[in-house]
Design brief:
The protein has helices spanning 24-31, 96-103, 113-124, 136-143, 153-163, 171-177, 201-210, 223-228, 265-275, 277-284, 289-292, 297-302, 310-316, 415-421, 428-441, 452-470, and strands at residues 4-8, 11-15, 50-55, 63-68, 81-83, 186-190, 193-197, 215-217, 236-239, 249-251, 257-260, 320-325, 328-333, 338-340, 343-344, 351-357, 364-372, 383-391, 397-405, 412-413, 485-488. The protein is of the alpha+beta class. The chain folds into three domains: 1-242, Beta-grasp domain (Ubiquitin-like (UB roll)); 245-357, Uridine Diphospho-n-acetylenolpyruvylglucosamine Reductase, domain 3 (2-Layer Sandwich); 365-488, Enolase-like, domain 1 (2-Layer Sandwich), CATH 3.30.390. It has a five-stranded mixed sheet with strand order 2-1-5-3-4. It has a five-stranded antiparallel sheet with strand order 10-11-16-12-13. Strand 19 (397-405) and strand 20 (412-413) form a beta hairpin. Helix 15 (428-441) runs antiparallel to helix 16. The protein is globular and about 70 Å long. The relative contact order is 0.09. Mean pLDDT is 92; it is low at 473-487.
């Protein structure tokens, strides 16, 4: 069968007879002896294994993306160009990001340093980064996935500020400018293990017919943990990441937004910053840049995790799930997509093609997204929610959608709380009524992230906070690094 082909630090590589369950990190270290890429946590938390992949499918054109090599399975880099810390020197000279880190004394023991350098490498070639107050939060977002145990973050941050957005005219920028998309369709076999990577729906249906028991994967940030932490072997995999049709991201003239299931979360975050700020603000605290550069909309939704961050915001916005199988396409409301713990309404031969966000209606629409977790950066939610009300000219609630994660076995709406708000003036009393009725919608469990009492209390306080932050008649004052609150189409009085 086919072999794997990719370019690493300027050199072509062909791979045969290596298990498709081997991670890129393990291949770099154990097969190629490239020890600069470190293993720390093997679950995408520490950033020691960060490398850069040249993504030729990025919405704004080819660009280098920092990713966690521990969460990328080796066949996923078929047809790609990669850089590790060993491949940054130019003519015997260190790369500007390496020089900057040296000048600012940003390394002591050095274990985290290669991963820090590779995250800075992406920052160096990001045109949307600049050392000013408006984009300052993006520097934190760029580097928050890199743990440093001994140096401290101030010198690392100062080094990043010096090089962020410089986009030097060097061989790396030339590599990006000259990049062409390579064919990525693949059928790879190693022993009893098979890995398929189709590029079209027809090729996908063929792969599913050939391997009906195969698991679907896209970014792999969730599935890879079963391999690195539970030491599972997944015998048959079908990766959807080469399917261009699933990376469609479109704002229609009607105001409706289509988001393909293969859209990377970092791309969705940038896209929705102006057209759907509720989604953008939830994604700001979703995870590290390395995670968002791999994780996809479909992966986050199709795992059907009760604490998935994206679902509550999309539930509040009234999203529709678009499913596709060999027999055609169908749609259903996202609140009907989740049917049980880690279970969806998809049939065995269907995939999630994307989600549709309806246009924001005219009038006074207020919407928020909140995430509550034990730490601000790179953490799983204890409670997450999206809250939405549409008011008439008199300030009476015409429609309400409250989506929650962490409160039930699935991401869920709160129908009783919604009904309590509809027909009432949007006031502190109405918000308090909805908060009290919310207790009838959910019976959360106790677990290590929070007790049932804590979850209920937090959820109620988020409803109260929703009113407090949107009741002034104008957009609430947002701090430099905003919370999840925005106001859409607020009527000016």
């Amino acid at each position: 069968m086919e072999h794997l082909r990719f370019t690493l630090n300027g050199q072509p590589h062909d791979v045969r007879d290596v298990s498709p369950n081997v991670t890129l990190l393990a291949y770099l270290r154990d097969h190629l002896g490239l020890k600069g890429t470190k293993e720390g946590c093997a679950e995408g938390d520490c950033g020691a294994c960060t490398v850069a992949i040249l993504d030729t499918d990025a919405p704004e054109g080819p660009s280098y993306r920092a990713v966690n090599a521990c969460l990328v399975l080796l066949p996923m880099v078929h047809g790609r160009t990669l850089r590790t810390v060993e491949g940054l020197e130019q003519g015997g000279e260190m790369h500007p990001v390496q020089k900057s880190l040296v000048e600012h004394l940003g390394s002591q023991c050095g274990y985290c340093t290669p991963g820090v350098v590779m995250s800075m490498f992406e920052a160096c070639y990001r045109a949307d980064l600049a050392p000013d107050r408006e984009t300052d939060w993006k520097l934190d977002d760029q580097m928050c996935g890199n743990l440093c145990r001994c140096t401290g973050y101030r010198p690392i941050r100062e080094a990043t500020q010096q090089i962020a957005g410089r986009c030097p005219k060097d061989r790396f920028s030339a590599e990006v400018a000259e990049a062409q998309a390579e064919p990525r369709e693949l059928t790879y076999v190693a022993g009893a293990e098979r890995f398929f990577m189709p590029e079209t729906f027809e090729a996908l249906w063929t792969a599913q017919a050939a391997a009906p028991a195969a698991e679907l994967v896209n970014g792999g940030t969730d599935l890879s943990l079963r391999i690195t932490k539970s030491f599972e072997t997944v015998p048959e995999l079908i990766s959807l990441e080469a399917m261009a049709a699933l990376r469609r991201l479109e704002l229609k003239d009607s105001g409706e937004i289509f988001v393909g299931s293969g859209v990377r979360l970092s791309d969705l975050e940038a896209f929705t910053e102006t057209c759907s700020p509720v989604v953008a603000r939830m994604l700001r605290y979703f995870g590290a840049r390395q995670i968002k550069n791999r994780a996809t909309v479909g992966g986050n939704l199709c795992t059907a995790s009760p604490i998935g961050d994206l679902a509550p915001a999309l539930l509040a916005l009234g999203a529709q799930a678009v499913l596709r199988g060999p027999e055609g396409q169908r749609s259903l409301p996202l609140n009907e997509f989740f049917v049980g713990y880690r279970k969806t309404a998809m049939r065995a031969d269907e995939i999630l093609e994307g989600v549709v966000l309806p246009a924001t209606p005219e009038g006074d629409v207020r919407a928020v997204a909140y995430k509550v977790s034990k730490r601000q950066e790179l953490d799983i939610s204890t409670v997450a929610c999206g809250l939405y009300v549409h008011l008439d000219a008199q300030g009476v609630v015409q429609a309400a959608r409250f989506g929650f994660g962490g409160m039930a076995a699935t991401p869920s709406r709160a129908p009783l709380a919604e009904a309590a708000a509809v027909g009432q003036p949007w006031s502190a009393a109405t918000a308090e009524l909805a908060a009290q009725v919310l207790l009838e919608d959910f019976s959360p469990i106790d677990d290590h992230r929070g007790s049932a009492w804590y979850r209920r209390t937090v959820a109620q306080n988020l409803v109260r906070g929703f009113f407090e932050e949107t009741q002034g008649g104008g957009s609430p004052s947002l701090p430099h690094r905003p919370s999840g609150t925005v106001v859409l189409n607020e009527a000016r009085r």
